[in-house]
Amino acid sequence: MFKARMKFAKEGRAKYISHLDLMHAMQRSMARCEMPLWFTEGFNQHAYVSVALPLSTGYSGEWELLDFNLLSESVPVNAVDALNAVFPEGLRAIEIYPLSDGGMPLRDIAWSKYRVTWSFAGSVPEDFVKDVSELFSRDTIEIVKRSKRGEKLVNMRDFLTEVHLTKQDNQVIVEAITAAGNNNMSPEYLTRAVEQYLPQYTIQGTAYHRMCVYNEKMQAFR
What is the pLDDT, as a whole number, of residue 43? Predict the structure, then answer.
């Protein structure tokens, strides 16, 4: 038995799959392509599969990571193609490799890069990009952050690094790097900050897509 990791994408219709359903889809797909998964022993046997930083339902992503155990001594030949042949629409395997081949410990995940799309009923308000850019350039952006422990007033800047805005027709595309791991900050707080500090603007629709995951040194996580 050895540990392997898959980098995959969850896009299109698949972004509406819940985390539990994603786990079921992964196990069923691996069984269909005869991936030699390792199962626990005992009465209730199950395969060990674990997703790092599961996406919220409705989010898409292209840098998703799944750890699992294999009975074989290596990753099967053409494993990526075999999985993609049986995956449901919207799931796509990108790379599969043994963790011994440079895989980083999940505890080292520190940052996530997201693309946030804000849509408007008509054209983008004239000063929207300027005002939002000025907002996120402040040293202090206080916002109520929610967690399992309750609510806490925090400085959003402590959980945020780069923020870049681009105007496209009736949309604004935001690329931002937010804290992940133990200090996770959802990209939804970008939208909440605009609603809180710039109430004169009304964002009609939002979409969230994870582009990359990094360690503390801002190295792309593998």
Answer: 66
Helix axis angle, 79-86 to 19-32, nearest 10° = 120
Question: H helices within 71-154, ranges in order?
Answer: 79-86, 128-136
The SS3 assignment for 191 reads helix
In the block, tokens 């699992």 appear at 68
Contacts of 133 (CB under 8 A, 6+ apart): 163, 165
Q: Which residues pair with 114 in a beta bridge?
A: 176, 210
Q: For tokens 């952006």, what's the residue?
A: 141
Per the CB < 8 A criterion, the answer to whether 194 and 203 are in contact is yes
- Predicted local distance difference test score (pLDDT) of residue 99: 87
Question: Do residues 196 and 140 make contact, with C-beta atoms less than 8 angstroms apart?
Answer: no
pTM attached to this predicted model:
0.92
Nearest by Cα to 25 from 9, 40, 14, 11: 14
The pLDDT assigned to 42 comes to 66
Confirm if 55 and 8 have CB atoms less than 8 A apart.
no
The predicted-structure confidence for 20-40, as pLDDT tens digits, reads as follows 999 999 989 988 988 888 776
Tokens of 161: 């690094």
